[in-house]
Amino acid sequence: MFSNLTDKLESTFKKLRGHGKLSEKNIRDAMREVRQALLEADVNYKVAGSFVKSVEQKAVGAKVLRSIDPGQQVVKVVYDELVQLLGGKAAPLAPFDKQPVIFMICGLQGSGKTTLTGKIALMAKRKKKKPLVVAADTQRPAAVKQLRVLADSISVEHFYVDGKGPEDICKLAVKHAQKNFIDVVIMDTAGRLHIDDELMAELEKIRQLTTPDEILLVADAMTGQDAVNVAREFHERLEVTGVVLSKLDGDARGGAALSIREVTGCPIKLASTGEKLGDLEPFHPDRLASRILGMGDIVSLVEKAQETVDLSEAERLQEKLLKSKFDFEDFLGQVNQLKKMGPLESVLGMVPGLGKQLKGIKFDEREIERMTAIIKSMTVQERRNPGMIDGSRRRRIAAGSGNSVQAVNQLLKQFFAMQKMFGNLGKKKLKGLPGGIMPF
Fold it and tell me: Which domains, from first to last, does the chain contain?
């Protein structure tokens, strides 16, 4: 999402590093470029102005250390200010320490409220809690059915009373939760294409009847400044306790993420990074600031690896790699591990320094699916012993996977080259990879 902003900031800092010594003029010139980059990223103009002013004051007044590049000192100041702009530190959700904890999800139509309801339900379930999702959106056609399908997909309870209004549905849901030892109630409320008094009056009534522990506003990161304006109005009427940025994996300019905390004073608590129900993570200001400045996010990468990688399997695979006994069965296992961690482009972009090298490269997920289809068209024996795949077997595999013989030949050639490369690698290099994930 922040690729254009990252590019412009890197270009500005590169010019600064070209100066042996920084003057006030150098810094002011650089800050003008930073301000322009922020405005082009759709950051609120007041936020951009105050941000640049603060950075300039601290950069000019900073004591220059001989051992550090002066340009790097400015980068450090910018990083610190970005972290503060985004909230300083992660803001936790209301703890699941009472029964039930009530979440009220609100936002405009199409922002991702129903999907977020399912994501929070899955998050609660993974913490060994019993969630209840409440279909309180009686305005949008099929909203009730959509939430039921999501609830069924993760085996959590769905609550809806036909013929009742949203306020009564939510009130009855809380009573149901209290009687049935449910830990978390998540209410999916109605949205509109724009804010109106009827919508806000309905939401205010639901808040009054249910006294939620968290009122989470879903802000679509793709809508730029509109998301900031929506957040301000919702916060004024409902006293929102936290913002959830949805569609943070999109290709918008990202200004909403940088403006929303400063303009509304409301903390960003969660970030939705994909369409799958597991694609929800706590919002960490320091990690996002690091990504914006092109520094990667190794902490999030390791956390993702720890969540998805079987460590004993990773150790077994590492031993096979060192002995050149890695086969197509192992390859499939690694592909599945990477899929669980999220889009390949996003995962590799978290590796410090790698994002710059991958700039402009688009990862075609269909290519991975094509390779997977070829491998699955092999017999178990062929997967475990790729060297036995001769010409006739290659023709059969190509026909079975719907690919050409040339595509099969290319995959085998790449595989043998990779197998040889890993066999030549030392243990030190492999130990540097988080969770045993291979670098491909």
Answer: 3-85 (1.20.120.140), 101-285 (3.40.50.300), 301-436 (1.10.260.30)
